[in-house]
Predict the structure of Trehalose 6-phosphate phosphatase.
Amino acid sequence: MDGSTTLPAPPVLGELLVQGPVALFLDFDGTLVEIAARPGEIYVPDALAGDLQTLSSRLDGRLALVSGRALDDLAGHLGELAVCRAGSHGASRYLADGTRLGEEPRGLADSSIAELKSYAEDHGLFYEEKAHGGALHFRDQPGKRDATLAFAADFAGSRDLCVTSGKGVIELVRPGATKAAAVEAFMEIAPFAGATPVFIGDDVTDEDGFAGAIKFGGFGIAVGERPSERARYALGSVAAVHHWLEI
Ligand SMILES: O=P(O)(O)OC[C@H]1O[C@H](O[C@H]2O[C@H](CO)[C@@H](O)[C@H](O)[C@H]2O)[C@H](O)[C@@H](O)[C@@H]1O
């Protein structure tokens, strides 16, 4: 496994665009905004939404946000952007004009939500309720990772759910909710089809996004210190991502 810190910096965006059309897939937390103690505590620069809108126009619409967050949560931070987007780890997808791309995944049963909330409460975790899953946050108690993972695996097994893990979080998601599937769905249609996909992300689930980009002839850019299995390039920080995106 390569450490992302040993990976080279990507060629500048302007140079890539001279070679041909590029499709950008951007993760949100840890890539466009810094990680915070709690999901609701992130700092979103005032200019970010407008900058993403402008970047999407520069790419003739070939920009998609691909986040683990639910899309309504993302909209709460960025407003209603007219850019392509996929939330809930890629499961819920929309085109820039608001048209849904594919089926909307099912939400969790009320009884499942109640059980997850109660587990979080009993174990001092923060529970993030999401439209199509649930997240058990242990950022302030890293020692609880393994027990939370074991609980989630057991919980998922009997409920048509899968488990993903990320920075300080274990999540329950619907089967097939991957960032690779989101990249694939966008790359099969205009204006993405035929462009070189570039996926930028910092976390474990972004490895799927990198795989999706590779499948369509593109590559991944890992952000931060986490060693990446699949990225071709790396950028050291959120600030470096903004600089690379020229926003
Ligand atoms: O795919 P992303 O857009 O990066 O979303 C991944 C998860 O991001 C959020 O959690 C992470 O960021 C929080 C705020 O910085 C941090 O407190 C938490 O520890 C991180 O795991 C979000 O809350 C999750 O729903 C996303 O799946």
